[in-house]
Amino acid sequence: MSKNPFDISGKVALVTGASRGLGLGFAKSLAKAGVNLAITSRSLESLEAPAKELEALGVKVHKVVLDVRDQQSIKDAVASVIEKFGCIDILMNNAGCNVRKPALEVEWDDWNLILETNLRGVFFVAQEVARHMSTKKYGRIINIGSVTCVAGYAGLGPYGASRGGTKQLTMSLAHDWGEYGITVNCLAPGWFKTDQNKVMYEQEGWVDYLCERIPLGRPGSPGDLEGALLLLASDASAYITGQTLLVDGGISVGAVRATVAK
Ligand SMILES: NC(=O)c1ccc[n+]([C@@H]2O[C@H](COP(=O)([O-])OP(=O)(O)OC[C@H]3O[C@@H](n4cnc5c(N)ncnc54)[C@H](OP(=O)(O)O)[C@@H]3O)[C@@H](O)[C@H]2O)c1
Fold this sequence. Notes:
This protein is 40% helix and 14% strand. Helix 1 (21-32) packs parallel to helix 2 (48-55), helix 3 (71-85) runs parallel beside helix 4 (108-136) and helix 4 runs parallel beside helix 5 (157-177). The chain has a 7-stranded parallel β-sheet with strand order 3-2-1-4-5-6-7, sandwiched between helices. By secondary structure, it is an alpha/beta fold. The protein is built from 8 helices and 7 strands, in the order E-H-E-H-E-H-E-H-E-H-E-H-H-H-E. The chain binds NADP nicotinamide-adenine-dinucleotide phosphate. NADP nicotinamide-adenine-dinucleotide phosphate (NAP) is lined by residues 16-17, 19-23, 41-43, 46, 66-69, 94-98, 117, 144, 146, 189, 191-192, 194-197. The site of NADP nicotinamide-adenine-dinucleotide phosphate has 30 residues, from helix 1.
């Protein structure tokens, strides 16, 4: 019988920014698939509860401190995972941040925070991990994107620039590292309720406004990302690289109804 191409049990994954939100969701999906995990946060304490939850799913969990704005921290974190597990098969390059402000109010430091975290951080984490993957001639790198990879949103200028940059970076890295058996793709979620955007969800009427513009009629919930994650993390995507996969309920296809309302 041929092997299930989605089977990733026994592999090792590094999930950055797994203390909460989508990162913790990605870690749970990988743990359910039997993947041993290195999970990161800027504080070890924030990883205590997530690690317990993940270990209860029967996999090994290694807690690692990582600040993606600090190059030495990236090197130390990746070295620690290699020391613990000997390899990294899958990188879920998820850590990220946002600052929501009208473009006229964005400050120099807002720009630096977002771009350093979401774009420079994604690149240097991928580079450090790819150094090891390239020696094994195998790797699955999944960079976090967003619907802002392909669409413009007021109040999200620097964030959108960081995600558009990630989409482009993903294409270039796919080309750079294909010869090493490493695929590089971008998983781009739509709107999911997490700490990062709960301020929007708490605004009266905003969820209705949003749902009106999503073809599938609802915001995302963490389980909605699992299928795309397992595809991009496994051999089922062996011939897919450089791609950005939108998991957004369809909001990126265009949000304006062009027929007359009934
Ligand atoms: N929620 C959405 O609708 C949505 C949609 C598209 C894309 N995304 C992206 O998906 C990712 C996860 O988002 P989320 O909504 O789950 O956000 P979140 O709840 O705010 O979680 C962000 C994660 O990133 C980590 N992080 C932030 N800055 C970091 C840094 N400098 N170094 C290392 N880790 C850092 C945080 O870790 P600690 O604070 O514990 O250090 C935390 O684990 C982000 O990249 C986000 O931009 C989210």
